[in-house]
């Protein structure tokens, strides 16, 4: 059977927003139950910073980073919808983790380079 992958993903959101874990799971191509918020202790152990004060650079270890679309300017070019899933699969392979599903074909980005703008926050009156 497949092993469970514990791959930290850093979400950059506006301070007045909360993560929508259903959207994050969809972006990563995994089931909703596979995605959970880390505890303050887990964040400090993985990244060296507590939640709410974590910079996207200078982390203790590289992490896939998803930047909420509300923080990004309009794109110059379309971002492939599969980019977050491919980056997560690449990062999991580099960590030596065994995924429950076959690895996705993707680019050769390293985890610290892997990042994507995506709708990952709850929106008032949406969904």
TrEMBL record:
One Pfam short name: tRNA_edit
Region called Disordered, residue ranges: 69-127
Cross-referenced CDD domains: YbaK_like (cd04332)
YbaK/aminoacyl-tRNA synthetase-associated domain ranges (all copies): 8-73
UniProt-listed Gene3D superfamilies: YbaK/aminoacyl-tRNA synthetase-associated domain
InterPro entries according to UniProt: YbaK/aa-tRNA-synt-asso_dom_sf, YbaK/aa-tRNA-synth-assoc-dom
Recorded GO MF terms: aminoacyl-tRNA deacylase activity
Basic and acidic residues: bias regions: 83-97
Name of the molecule in the record: YbaK/aminoacyl-tRNA synthetase-associated domain-containing protein
Annotated organism of origin: Pyramimonas obovata
């Amino acid at each position: 059977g497949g092993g469970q992958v514990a791959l930290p993903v850093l979400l950059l959101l506006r301070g007045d927003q909360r993560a929508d874990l259903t959207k994050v799971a969809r972006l990563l191509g995994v089931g909703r139950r596979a995605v959970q918020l880390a505890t303050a202790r887990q964040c400090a152990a993985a990244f060296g910073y507590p939640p709410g004060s974590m910079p996207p650079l200078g982390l203790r270890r590289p992490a896939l980073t998803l930047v909420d679309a509300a923080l990004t300017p309009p794109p110059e070019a379309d971002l492939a919808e599969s980019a977050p899933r491919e980056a997560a699969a690449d990062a999991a392979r580099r960590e030596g983790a065994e995924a429950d599903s076959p690895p996705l074909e993707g680019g050769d980005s390293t985890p610290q380079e892997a990042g994507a703008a995506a709708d990952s926050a709850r929106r008032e009156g949406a969904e």
